[in-house]
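tool_log.txt
---
The assistant was asked to compare two proteins side by side. It first ran the structure predictor on the initial sequence, then on the second. Raw inputs and outputs are pasted verbatim so the downstream comparison step can read them without reformatting.
(1)
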Amino acid sequence: MNMNEEEKMKAGKIYDPNDDVLVVKREKAHILCRHYNSTDEHMVQERRRILSLLLPGMADSAVLMGPIFFDYGTNTTIGKNSFANFNFTVLDCAPVTIGDDVYIGPNVSLYTPVHPLLAEERRCYRREDGILTDKEYAKPIVIEKDCWIAGGVTILGGVRIGEGSVIGAGSVVTKDIPPHSLAYGNPCRVVRTIDGNDSIYRKKELFE
């Protein structure tokens, strides 16, 4: 079966990012992001209107502080009661799935695109119609429910972060993180399992 460039992109195949359809969809998303970023937090209805166009897969109870930056938006799903702080960047060439009750700190980036390692395969080339383009493919990202992604984290394509996990500030996540894990570093590594001993109610200094 012949696939168009958008179908190839979502399926993780090599695709042409300067395909006419993809260019139009990116431009639409970038315009909507600029409009959202020009609004104030009290402009709730206008922000909801913009997000309904940019992120039709976002739950009504989710909150994005802004500024936000999405490549497509329509390839991203965000669950109920999830929250993203300032400068949330999502290059959603492949599907990005964010579960319910996920907290995302400022300056977090989710990158699904993958570029060739060999320079000769990464260089731009000219299509038959004269348009310059290049070769790339993309891998999905999944953040399961109840995760906390701290500030400055970068998550690369192909990664799944398991339910209830916490990713420490400044981490670069290149591999899957199992559920209920505390993980941090560059590259991000699991430090330990999160359990009842981590309850804030065990920290007396927080209540005295």
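(2)
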Amino acid sequence: MKMLILIVDDEAAAIRKMERTLKTIYAERSDVTILCADNYIDALACGRGMPEIAFLDIEMPGMSGIELARRLMELNPRLNVIFVTAYDHFAREAYALHASGYITKPYLKEDVESELKHLRFAVPEAPQTAAKEPVQAVPVELPEKKLRVQCFGNFDVFSDNRPLHFQRRGAKEILAYLISLKGASATRLEICSAMWESAEEIEQRKDYFRILISALRRTLRQYGAEEVLLTSRDSFAVNVQLLDCDYYRYLEGDPAMKNQYLGMFMQQYQWAENINAMLSGQMYE
């Protein structure tokens, strides 16, 4: 019987480090498979494969590691969850979930070994006839891009090369703001503060914001892209894996995007001026 281990972290370097550590620890076992995910959607998909152990970062865009652990443990109540984080103030909340372990970054191989020796639930033991083969790491297949996003110049969104029709301009602006955060989450207050300046106007628009979010969901659903919007309580984000975005590709160093930015970024929105100034500064460095 094989053993599955899941690593979830939004930082590729963190995934690679844990992957190397586990390969070293399980170098003598050919029955161990490592699954890697950098977002909660892929992590939940891996969870359906019933891994025995999950190493979860806590602070991630879209869904925290704490909430992700709850969802994974609903799929597999005997999952050994080991939280890996740069902060120790999450420990109480983590252990309230009956986690198997808690590792603080930066960590050593010995720290990981110690947690693996004290798992809450038993895991498959090494078969006695196991051949000495390298542990395989299985990256999650990237999801298909749902929308093409244009941030340079005026902001616009396309599906099959046709612009999306938004029933409300405010719904489009919310999507633009979330896309500008590159997957990081924002609260209702943060979004409203960007769109409307005065505290009085923000308070008055509280109910209107709910209308705009509902309108945004309907529009995305109409184009088969409802998974783009990620919500959790009073937290909103976009799944960047589903977006083909010129801004993201530019930041990743895509040569094809070098000449696309001409000094204008989401120019119809005032709150985008700071990002535009940052990008303009980079042009002349």
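---
observation on (2): The radius of gyration is 22 Å. The first strand starts at residue 3 and ends at 8.
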